Model the fold of this input.
Amino acid sequence: MVGAAAAGGGAIVNVSSTAGLVGFPRHPAYAASKHGVVGLTKTAALEYAKAGIRVNAVCPGYIVTDMTREPMQRKGDQIMSRIPFGRLGTPE
Done:
């Protein structure tokens, strides 16, 4: 942080998840960790704003992984109806 502040500013981008905003049933540890990233991001944004350092979090939705396979089998249509883009993300 010292280097960015000395340079007049900078940016930090953290990766969280929509699970960090609304939760993720059956995956409490994952949801808790992503809520933690969101909280850390908000706190860091407040602490470093005067140094010209922006802090943001990217919160992607469902990505095709082993973890999302089971929820998609149970609630695929319901999940897809809430995705404006009409498709799941991929790790690539």
